[in-house]
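Possible regression after last week's pipeline update?

I re-ran a chain I had predicted before the update to compare outputs. Posting the input and the new output here so someone can diff against the archived version. Not blocking, just want to make sure nothing changed silently.
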Amino acid sequence: MGEKNKMIKGQLYDPADSELVELRKQARLTLEQYNSSSIAEPEKREALLKNLLKKSPKNLYIEPPFYCDYGFNIELGENVYMNFNCIFLDVCQITVGNNVLFAPGVQVLTATHPLIAQERNEGLEFAKPIKIGHNCWIGAGVLILPGVTIGDNTTIAAGSVVTKDIPANVLAAGNPCVIKKEL
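New output (post-update):
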């Protein structure tokens, strides 16, 4: 099994693999163009996102700058809005439902490293997928950590660090993020 397949499956993999290095380079070149594009160039922006992402949903709007590792592991629903400075480390699958709003500075981070220093020093890493349901609002500066699922219709308050799954229909906040009330 190649390093790319191991990466996508959440297994330990070598990020220095030449194929992965090239894929990250291509994503960064595309993002460089996207992040320097003008609001007056919607067709150019749409084409760049179509080239970068797994699919091109209806009514997707991403305010530059936007950053990701690969792009092909990001699956966005329809009517998704991302404000400035969102970062998606898509080492494995990030799935976002329809009608999701991301405030400025949100980080969705699938990538992680072994806890044992000796293993970490070997340069291997792994990832855990993230899923965000439909109709969610993710507040400014939120960090969503590897392996988290956020249920439909949920709001995550600004500055929260989401370390564990959050169910549907709640307001959650804090570090670590916990349920504050049902919606």
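Follow-up from reviewer: compared with the archived run. The chain has one domain: 3-182. Marking as no regression found.
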